Each structure stands twice: as C-alpha cells, then as structure tokens.
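Alpha/beta fold hydrolase
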Amino acid sequence: MPLINPENSYQAPFWLPEGHSQSIFPSLFRKVQYLSAQRERLILSDGDFVDLDWYVDGPLSEKPLLIISHGLEGSSQAQYVLGLTKTMREKGFHVLAWNFRSCSGELNTQLRSYHSGATDDLEEVIQACVKQGAKELYLAGFSLGGNLTLKWLGEKGQNHPNLIRKAVAFSVPLHLSSSSRKLARLENGLYTHRFLQTLLAKAQAKAAKFPGAVDPAILRKIKTLKEFDDVITGPWHGFKDAEDYYEQNSSLYFLSKIQVPTLVVNAQNDPFLSPECLPADMASKWEHVFLELPEQGGHCGFYPVNYQGTLWSEQQAMNWFLNKETINYV
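Predicted structure tokens:
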C-alpha cells in the first residue's frame, strides 16, 4: 500500500517542542483512570505463565476483541495501553491487555523471558482467546509490542487465522540493530538507564534462581541495551548474540508477508527510532501494510493540542479499526 500523506497528521502542542518532551510528558504525567481489569493467569505450554487483563462485559463471541501488546519493560497498566483500552471499550470492543513474561509484577518461572520476537507467547494468547469464544480479533502493539505483533502477522502470512480483522502498531523499532545504536547515543541515556534498571534487576534475580546462567559480575558491567542483549537476551533465547537476535527478529523483514490490513505509525522525531525504521521508500511494496510517518509525536507520545482524555494515536487506531479513516496517499 502507498505511504499515507502526513498533511493532516499529528501536530504537537507548542509546549512540547521536540521528540524527547513529546515522549516523556505523556509517560510521566498522563493519568488514565479506568475500571479494574479481570486478571487471568495463562499457563503456557512450557509451564511458564503470562498474566492477562480482561476488559469484557459478556461473552467474547458477542463483540470484537482487541488484543494489546505493550512495550519494553511496560505492562498492561501503561498509560498508552489503558488509553487505547478506554477508547475501544467506548466503541463497543472487548479488550485484552496482556503482560509479557515477568512484566506483571512477578518474576516468571523459566530462565527465558520476553523479547522483541517472542511470537510463540502471542500465539498462545491468541489461541486462548479463540478457545474462549472470540470470533473477531484486532491487534495493537506499541514499540517492542508493535514489533512482536508485526512479526507474528508476517510469520503467519496467508495462514493467519481468518478471525484476525486488522492490526495497528505505533512507535515500532522495525530495524532492531540500528534502533539499538540510536538508543546508545548520549542524548538517550535517560531511556537506557530507565530500561536497564528493571531489566538488570530481573536478570540478577534469574541469576540467583538459575546458578550458572550468567556471571553476576558481568551484569554489573552492562551499560547499554546492546550489551544486555549480548549477554542476556540473545543467549537466553537461543541466539548467538545481540546482532543475531536483532537480525532474526526485526519486523521490517516480515512486513511484505503480512496479509491482514495493518497500520504502522512511526514519528520521524522518535528518539528511539533510526532512519531504517522510517522506510518511506519501501511502503509501495507492501500490499497490506499502510505506513504513516508524522513529523512529530515522539515515542508512544502523540499528546494532542486540545487534549480531552484521548491521544491522537488512540483516535487513529479507533478510526482504523472502525473504517473511519481518511487516507490521503502520497
């Protein structure tokens, strides 16, 4: 599909002038008040678990169900997850916001955890929804969860379940290696520090639980996400190192195989995303993927000028899912 014309795209408030402020303000200061979820623990095929937060008011078969996948070290309680949940519930959807392994507040039981390409876990979540009666599924993913969602769709290709209707992904590191290098820059040190605080705490807990899995002394030397992926993410999940992990799991390589109408929205000023994650020149080659590249928005930001409780990204997702989008092609 062609690139979506950004002419009528997102515009930031004047007091959020660049990508960092547009990313940080919604994350820290936006508070979404919403009903408590019904939490269910899904036991996975390897004996581990993920926790599911359901927002439903009747049988799954009676309404479309949206499955939301959060970002790196996020959870089902992230403001961008709750915001989209609230928006789509008001439009008559059931919503399932799931937590990746170790992201619901409790360490998972296996040595492995989650990562950008762990589509086997998303597959089990989707199959659990089908078994419980879901007849019409929509998918949404943010950042790492967006990469995961797109990779799953690409892996399925023409063999995707027929009940998958549409998907949307925001702020996606489509090319993991170059995004890792972008995050390692000095100006992005705040994000790296924040991620590593919780990632290393979990890795240290795993090291204590699984002696020999990693030398705790090595963990104390890790300063970047790539170093973490070299020592932990790659080896613990069957990859040679960070670069092997990045190359095998970058959703950029799976977009051409997607057979479900899918919207990908990446801001050009996103501090996390490299130029490779803004592939305007490739958009015409994708039959079912629409690419929107607004000039502003930051990372999972998109706080609008006249904020009334809904982000621009949530409005875009709602329009996309309900066929209310006005698409102007370049």
